[in-house]
Design brief:
The strands form two sheets. A four-stranded antiparallel β-sheet has the order 4-5-7-6, with helices on both faces. A three-stranded antiparallel β-sheet has the order 1-2-3, with no helix packed on it. Helix content is 49%, strand content 18%. The chain is of the alpha+beta class. It has a single domain, classed as Trafficking protein particle complex subunit 3 (Muramoyl-pentapeptide Carboxypeptidase, domain 2), CATH 3.30.1380. Strand 1 and strand 2 form a beta hairpin.
């Protein structure tokens, strides 16, 4: 069966009503970079240092809800539950969904799966700190739903247009919080995370 998200009919726009909906009828709302910047400034003024945590929590909730919705939609489309899908098919679906919804080009690296670490790379994503916090939360929420346990994600320093996120159990990421806070290079954060046992 084809790509559920690639079809030109995935997003339908009703110009007269001023509404965009996806194939399942869910209303879509765009968030321009200016909106994200204003949201971050407001949260920063209201919440201080907790602003990024608030955005990440909102992203996590959105990602989990998106995963629930996509799981149901894909199961109906393919006639089989997500659990019966191969990892390659799941990754392709997720990549296509990210592109179609304007979050960028997603790639998941499962090579460290046996150590409890995943790496997500996103190109052409919305820019700026607030988008990074939302995106980290969304990725963690999506993968938490699929994994059946709570996961957290943290951004590591960007490399040009490439944003990278490490995904692991929250208590493991807490143990490398200093390296993340000091903006240590991506590979250094991954190496430190591999040494953490909980």
């Amino acid at each position: 069966m084809g790509d559920y998200f690639a079809d030109d009919n995935y997003v339908r726009t009703d110009v007269a009503a001023g509404v965009c909906r996806d194939r399942a009828g869910t209303r879509l709302v765009g968030m321009p970079d200016d909106f994200l910047a204003a949201l971050h400034q407001t949260l920063d003024a209201e919440c201080g240092p907790a602003a990024d945590r608030v955005l990440q929590a909102a992203g996590h909730d959105w990602g989990r809800r998106m995963a629930e919705r996509l799981t149901a939609e894909l199961a109906e489309y393919r006639g089989e539950p997500l659990a019966a899908t191969t990892v390659a098919r799941f990754q392709a679906d997720l990549q296509s969904a990210f592109r179609q919804l304007g979050w960028g080009v997603l790639s998941l690296d499962f090579s460290r799966f046996d150590t409890g670490i995943l790496v997500a790379e996103v190109r052409h994503s919305p820019s700026g700190g607030p988008a990074d916090a939302l995106l980290a939360g969304a990725i963690a929420g999506l993968l938490s739903h699929v994994a059946g346990r709570d996961l957290a994600a943290a951004a590591t320093p960007t490399a040009g247009d490439l944003k990278r996120f490490v995904i692991a159990l929250p208590e493991r990421l807490e143990k490398v919080a200093d390296a993340l806070h000091r903006r240590r290079p991506h590979d250094e954060v991954v190496t430190a995370l591999e040494r953490v046992r909980v």
